[in-house]
């Protein structure tokens, strides 16, 4: 056979392999508002940049008539391409081929591209659209998932791992994403559960829709399994591009520095925080008032809203922001907000991203519900994460910093490099009302007019502690600054921290509360 004919044969084989699932399955996919796996890759990557591998891989299953089935690409497309000119590795499961279920060869295609991404130090983006372990392949498909989970763990903290949930994902198809850094979901399309409604009906006799069980909204707002929520696939891919613009390609690098831009004029920092410590405000406006172009990219926007985390830039450098959100639950730390903050802090630390913390909270949320839900263990994660982080850390106390909240939110005592406070800061073991009621209980009870005495004692306590100067006198705060100085002071602190180097005691790994 001459070269021409061999090329023709290659083209024919390619054409056949590129077909994906049958017409019925493709129509079902499209009718649900979903793109096909191949269309997704094209939409995600730079134009014409995709290089596919393992197109001709075939499954080897023989049971349950599998030997009679041709599964194109074994239900997954893998390769490398670029996003904004930088290389990424990608896999996309094809639900039109056996429901994107994961058999042995399917898993080998994925683990091969994972190994490649780790070796070449580039992000791995997994587009998941799969019914989980391929039932007909038994333990081989379980083995396949085990190999994937192992590699997710090996790559954790070395290269960015991004999971996109674009279909009904069950079993192993959700555990691999759970091991990755960021999970993206799309309204009406993404579903995540360990076992689907059919299994639930069989085992528990309960009827539940896929959406109720694990729709995009459930995971973006209730469980926190999803970090980003989009209205459609296109918006989701744009979010991925934006995320990638902030983060480095591996833990050996720092994020790319881009051109500096001033914050937009519509955020006047001195007008955002009300002086009355009981009044709420949106702390994201404080972040927007200090970041380049007022561009704040929020992570976990819909979950545990009493804390805000996300990325922004100062003088072109990526920064991770953590801020109490007085708009929700007065910005307290509770089980979920502690988990949210701790995991974000650890991400920033692993990938050389400095952390800026804005503090305004009355403390940890008290109550039986929280105690029973393990607020001690979850709250301790924040202490651990800040203490462990060796990236440059800066904290600004805006208003309230009471009790454990003061210590936990990036205090000096957890080795924060720069601690600033606004003149409105109040640093104390607890709020003035509670404190006065406890330490002056006797005087208040025995007074002729207890209410008058209580007010007087609250005033005395406020005068003594509800300010930043007691902490500043001890050096716990490096500078009391005017709100308008915040950006300049933080940018300077970041600049002088560029070559920060600290080393802790030698250990295999620590034991954070999990
Ligand atoms: C083999 C599968 C499959 C699977 C789906 N299919 N899941 N084939 N193994 N796990 C096939 C279907 O048979 C069907 O084939 C096609 O994919 C499309 O599936 P439908 O059911 O028609 O689609 P839909 O109605 O949209 O429902 C999707 C679904 C449902 C919710 C994902 O298919 C489902 O519940 N699947 C099983 C989910 C599950 O329990 N997986 C857990 C596996 S255990 P045809 O030929 O009819 O088109 C696991 C262990 C790992 O993953 C644990 C790690 C810790």
Fold blueprint:
Elements: H1 3-17, H2 23-31, H3 37-44, E1 51-53, E2 76-83, E3 86-93, H4 104-120, E4 124-128, H5 139-155, E5 161-165, E6 168-170, H6 172-178, E7 182-186, E8 191-193, H7 197-204, H8 210-214, H9 216-223, E9 228-230, H10 233-246, H11 283-290, E10 297-299, E11 307-314, E12 317-324, H12 335-350, E13 355-361, H13 368-372, H14 375-388, E14 393-402, H15 403-408, E15 418-421, E16 426-428, H16 432-439, H17 441-446, H18 450-465, H19 469-473, E17 479-480, H20 486-496
Parallel strand pairs: 3-4, 4-5, 5-7, 6-8, 7-9, 12-13, 13-14, 14-15, 14-16, 15-17
Antiparallel strand pairs: 1-2, 2-3, 10-11, 11-12
Helix pairs in contact: 4-5, 5-6, 12-14, 16-18
Bound molecules: hexanoyl-coenzyme A.
Hexanoyl-coenzyme A binds at residues 25, 98-99, 101, 131-135, 142, 145, 168, 170-172, 175, 195-196, 198-199.
Summarize the structure in words.
- The chain is of the alpha/beta class.
- It has three domains: 3-246, Alpha-Beta Complex (2-enoyl-CoA Hydratase, Chain A, domain 1); 269-430 and 466-496, 2-enoyl-CoA Hydratase, Chain A, domain 1; 432-465, no CATH class.
- It has helices spanning 3-17, 23-31, 37-44, 104-120, 139-155, 172-178, 197-204, 210-214, 216-223, 233-246, 283-290, 335-350, 368-372, 375-388, 403-408, 432-439, 441-446, 450-465, 469-473, 486-496, and strands spanning 51-53, 76-83, 86-93, 124-128, 161-165, 168-170, 182-186, 191-193, 228-230, 297-299, 307-314, 317-324, 355-361, 393-402, 418-421, 426-428, 479-480.
- Strands 10, 11, 12, 13, 14, 15, 16 and 17 form an eight-stranded mixed sheet that branches. The protein has a seven-stranded mixed sheet with strand order 1-2-3-4-5-7-9, sandwiched between helices.
- A hairpin with a 2-residue loop joins β11 and β12 (317-324).
- α16 (432-439) packs across α18.
- The model has no long low-confidence stretch (mean pLDDT 95).
- The structure holds hexanoyl-coenzyme A.
- Hexanoyl-coenzyme A binds at residues 25, 98-99, 101, 131-135, 142, 145, 168, 170-172, 175, 195-196, 198-199.
């Amino acid at each position: 056979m001459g070269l021409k004919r061999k090329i023709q044969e290659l083209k024919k084989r390619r054409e056949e392999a590129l077909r994906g699932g049958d017409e019925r399955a493709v129509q079902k996919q499209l009718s649900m508002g979903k793109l096909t796996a191949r269309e997704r890759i094209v939409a995600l990557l730079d134009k014409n940049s995709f290089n596919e591998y393992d197109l001709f891989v075939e499954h080897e299953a023989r049971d349950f008539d599998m030997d009679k089935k041709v599964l194109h690409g074994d239900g997954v497309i893998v390769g490398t391409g670029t996003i904004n000119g930088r290389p990424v590795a990608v896999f996309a499961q094809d639900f039109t081929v056996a429901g994107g279920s994961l058999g042995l060869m399917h898993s080998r295609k994925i683990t091969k591209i994972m190994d490649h991404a780790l070796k070449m130090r580039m992000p791995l983006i997994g587009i998941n659209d799969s019914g989980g372990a391929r039932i007909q392949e038994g333990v081989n498909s379980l083995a396949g998932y085990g190999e994937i989970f192992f590699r997710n763990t090996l790559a954790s903290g070395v290269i960015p791992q991004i999971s996109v949930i674009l279909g009904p994902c069950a079993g192993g198809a959700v555990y691999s994403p759970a091991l990755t850094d960021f999970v993206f979901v799309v309204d009406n399309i993404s579903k995540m559960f360990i076992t689907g409604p059919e299994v639930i009906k069989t085992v528990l006799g309960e009827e539940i829709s896929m959406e109720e069980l694990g729709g995009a909204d459930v995971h973006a707002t209730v469980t926190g399994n999803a970090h980003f929520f989009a209205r459609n696939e296109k918006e989701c891919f744009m979010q991925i591009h934006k995320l990638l613009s902030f983060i480095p390609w591996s833990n050996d690098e720092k994020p790319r520095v881009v051109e500096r831009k001033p914050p937009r004029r519509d955020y006047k920092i001195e007008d955002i925080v009300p002086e009355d410590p009981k009044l709420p405000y949106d702390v994201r406006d404080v972040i927007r008032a200090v970041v380049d172009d007022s561009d704040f990219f929020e992570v976990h926007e819909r979950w545990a809203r009493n804390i805000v985390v996300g990325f922004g830039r100062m003088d072109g450098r990526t920064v991770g922001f953590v801020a109490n959100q007085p708009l929700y639950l007065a910005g307290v730390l509770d089980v979920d907000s502690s988990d949210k903050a701790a995991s974000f802090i650890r991400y920033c630390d692993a990938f050389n991203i400095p952390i800026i913390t804005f503090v305004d909270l009355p403390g940890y949320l008290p109550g039986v519900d929280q105690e029973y839900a393990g607020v001690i263990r979850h709250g301790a994660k924040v202490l651990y994460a800040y203490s462990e982080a060796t990236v440059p850390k800066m904290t600004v106390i805006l208003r309230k910093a009471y009790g454990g909240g003061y210590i936990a939110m990036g205090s000096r005592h957890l080795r924060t490099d720069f601690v600033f406070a606004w003149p409105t800061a109040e640093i104390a073991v607890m709020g003035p009302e509670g404190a006065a009621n406890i330490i002056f209980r006797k005087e208040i009870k025995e007074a002729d007019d207890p209410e008058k005495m209580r007010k007087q004692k609250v005033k005395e306590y406020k005068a003594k502690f509800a300010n930043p100067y007691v902490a500043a006198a001890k050096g716990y705060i490096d500078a009391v600054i005017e709100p308008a100085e915040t950006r300049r002071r933080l940018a300077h602190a970041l600049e002088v921290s560029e070559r920060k180097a600290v080393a802790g005691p030698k250990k295999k790994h620590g034991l954070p509360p999990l």
